[in-house]
């Protein structure tokens, strides 16, 4: 199996904000293996120590602490910043939207102040306007959507526009992440929701209907992030090769998790159209887990 794209052939000093998230914890070792100097930011002492155990420099900082973040970036003097800041492990939409707005602003301002010219930022591939076919990067965002979707899309717009203040800004529009450390891992929130846990908060998003989703394994997302250090500015969908309806992928996921699958039902969210990875493939990236069909079963989900 191919290791995928290697990214830049030159070594860089890279600052990873959100280094202990689902993507970050895989990304940091990949960057180190590529010969890069890596500093990872975490807001907790435990996260900082985890980064250090991986062999990178770890710094405790809060994305909402504008002055503190500026000091960290100035002291690190990176060649590039990678933005992986979310509160998604806690299903905290409000804080995630705030991170996309305020956290991104603070990070970009700190980077520009330190003379950094390149940023690679985590975005999402399900914020496009409604349509019948998988969206490519020319499709506009779904601005003006009703809440709570509207707030999420507005946050994505703010994140991408703020990142674009940098000389080079690549917005990686990930598909739904699965694999270790995600909601879709064994024992995670999705498994609990499918098993009927009344406290699980994601059940409304797990309908076996005609809505279309694009997935990407966290390791493939991390590989794309490394590769994007050498890509030109703009948004890029990072998704696998098979957008699929809920009635197709949910039974496969449920079987992999060992939980009951929901009954198929009619209906479709008009914005749930999936996304195309043609642009990313044209730049040399391709997913090792080309489809969720075997990815769910063979990668520990």
What does this structure look like?
- By secondary structure, the chain is of the alpha/beta class.
- It has ten helices and eleven strands.
- The strands form three sheets. Strands 3-2-1-4-5-6-10 form a seven-stranded parallel sheet, sandwiched between helices. A two-stranded parallel sheet has the order 7-9. The chain has a two-stranded antiparallel ribbon with strand order 8-11.
- The longest helix is centred in the middle third of the chain and has 21 residues, at 93-113.
In short:
This protein has 301 residues and is α/β, with parallel strands linked by helices.
Topology:
Layout: E1 13-17, H1 24-33, E2 37-42, H2 45-53, E3 57-60, H3 66-76, E4 80-83, H4 93-113, E5 118-124, H5 149-163, E6 168-174, E7 176-178, H6 189-194, E8 212-213, E9 215-217, H7 218-227, E10 234-238, E11 244-245, H8 246-257, H9 278-282, H10 292-298
Parallel strand pairs: 1-2, 1-4, 2-3, 4-5, 5-6, 6-10, 7-9
Antiparallel strand pairs: 8-11
Helix pairs in contact: 1-7, 3-4, 4-5, 8-10
What descriptors fit this protein?
301 residues; alpha/beta; 10 helices; 11 strands; 16% strand
| Unreliable residue stretches | 1-5
Secondary-structure class: alpha/beta
SS summary, helix count: 10
Q: Judging from the principal axes of the Cα atoms, what is the shape? A: globular
How many strand units?
Answer: 11
* Order of secondary-structure elements: EHEHEHEHEHEEHEEHEEHHH
- In terms of quaternary structure, the protein is single chain
